[in-house]
Amino acid sequence: MTAHIVIIGAGQAGVQTAEALRAGGFAGAITLLGDEPHGPYHRPPLSKAWLAGDIGAEQLVMRAPEALARKNIALRTHTQVSAIDRAARQVKLADGSTLPYSGLVLATGSTPRSLPLIGGDAQGVLALRSRIDASAIAERMARCIEQQLPVVVIGGGFIGLEVAATARKKGLSVTVLEAAPRLLGRVLAPMLSDWYAQLHRSHGVNLVLGAQITALETDAQAAVSGVRMADGSVVPAGLVVVGIGVSANEQLARDAGLECERGIVVDACGRTSDPLILAAGDCTARRLPDGSLLRLESVQNATEQGKSVAAALLGQERPFTATPWFWSDQYDKKLQMAGLSGGADQWAVRGDMGGDMVAGSFSVYHFKGNKLLAVDSVNASRDHLQARKLLDAGASPTPQQAADVGFDLGGLLAK
Ligand code: FAD
């Protein structure tokens, strides 16, 4: 059979893989299969600039179909893969047809978790993953503005908080219900969680921490009308956005007998337990040298794994081991995160956290003992870029040096 790489999922990781294959000299056929009606687009603006109305649909486009065609990458939208036949080396499509492969890439992304509560599937209870989801939320927000109905966001994670900030920008009344005692508790240092809580409250968000939700209330038309709390009170809502995390889309891989554990298990080069099948992006769980699994949901992860997967298909080793990074925009604050903060036991703040919520250009350095693990920067891009270099190089300031703005952290790199 002639070389034919089939890529399932036409998102960030899928497009990156296809283009990196061509850039690396792959001359065989490449087919990019996506089950959405749209060609590849950027997801991050869906909760930020696009939802706020600051950019139009054309600015969401990641790669126009013609640009892919010029690289001889066959894009098929509206095309769902329903099974992988590893023995026959072919994928089965939802329309019953099959497609043979010489190499297969799973870039299937992830799916928002749904709310396992009564009323969780009512009209107006929406999650945000796709352009279709974002349009539904935008429409509902417009209706809330018209009818002066409030918005409730369930889950104080990045997507929920970005939606809350955007809704406030539009003048909507917003409540954020977070079950944990602090915002983004698994990734942010306690002082930054508090800072974000204060930021949202200063913009008029009714933020409830430790929130216990028991059900969603509906009106006579079966549309959501409020969120019932454990104390019996009801928070009124014309729209409920649920942002309680995602699950990796691993079912195809699982059904095909590939190793899966909270994601499709891959090595640093994106290889699965089948040498002909690789995986990249949100759908993966990367096995680290110590045997643990790392799940990342970010543009950088999808991009870098896509490049590693393409290299592996070309017979090269390109492990993705760089420092992970991520960003989130809320109001006029850009948070940029570098590294993995899990296990941190002390923190140092560099810069001005701006008690008035207006100034605020600073970074929080996470340490385990005296070892730098991660850096979260707010409106401090230079700190962020430097942090990535420090972490990549394994260079670590002491917490005292990190907190001292007079200390040249860049000097640690030169040594
Ligand atoms: P996706 O981009 O989700 O692509 C997977 C594609 O595969 C989807 O189109 C899916 O429909 C398709 N698919 C799945 N199963 C099948 C099948 N069986 N057959 C055919 N097609 C299939 N990351 C950041 O780093 N910074 C941010 O600020 C940020 N903001 C975000 C805001 C929002 C609202 C969202 C939703 C995500 C955000 N992310 C952000 C995360 C980032 O967008 C994802 O990590 C990234 O898109 C992952 O790329 P992917 O290719 O793995 O998955």
CATH architecture assignment name of the largest domain: 3-Layer(bba) Sandwich
> Proportion of β residues?
25-35%
Q: Tally of extended strands? A: 26
What would you call the quaternary organization? single chain
Low-confidence parts, pLDDT < 50 over ≥5 residues?
none
What is the CATH third-level topology name of the largest domain? FAD/NAD(P)-binding domain
Structural class: alpha/beta
What distance lies between the first and last C-alpha atoms, to the nearest angstrom? Answer: 53 Å
Q: What do you see in this structure?
A:
- By secondary structure, the protein is α/β, with parallel strands linked by helices.
- It has three domains: 4-111 and 246-313, FAD/NAD(P)-binding domain, CATH 3.50.50; 125-242, FAD/NAD(P)-binding domain (3-Layer(bba) Sandwich), CATH 3.50.50; 332-414, FAD/NAD-linked reductase, C-terminal dimerisation domain (Enolase-like, domain 1, 2-Layer Sandwich), CATH 3.30.390.30.
- The chain is 26% helix and 28% strand.
- It is built from eleven helices and 26 strands.
- The chain has helices at residues 12-23, 49-52, 65-70, 131-147, 158-169, 190-202, 251-255, 299-313, 381-393, 399-403, 411-414; strands spanning 4-8, 29-33, 73-76, 81-85, 90-93, 98-100, 103-106, 110-112, 125-126, 151-154, 174-178, 206-209, 213-218, 224-229, 234-236, 239-242, 246-248, 264-266, 277-279, 284-287, 293-294, 325-330, 333-339, 346-352, 361-368, 371-378.
- It has a five-stranded parallel sheet with strand order 3-2-1-7-19. A five-stranded parallel sheet has the order 9-16-10-11-12, with helices on one face. A five-stranded antiparallel sheet has the order 22-23-26-25-24.
- Helix 1 (12-23) runs parallel beside helix 8.
- The radius of gyration is 22 Å and the shape is globular.
- Bound molecules: flavin-adenine dinucleotide.
- Flavin-adenine dinucleotide binds next to helix 1, helix 8 and strand 22.
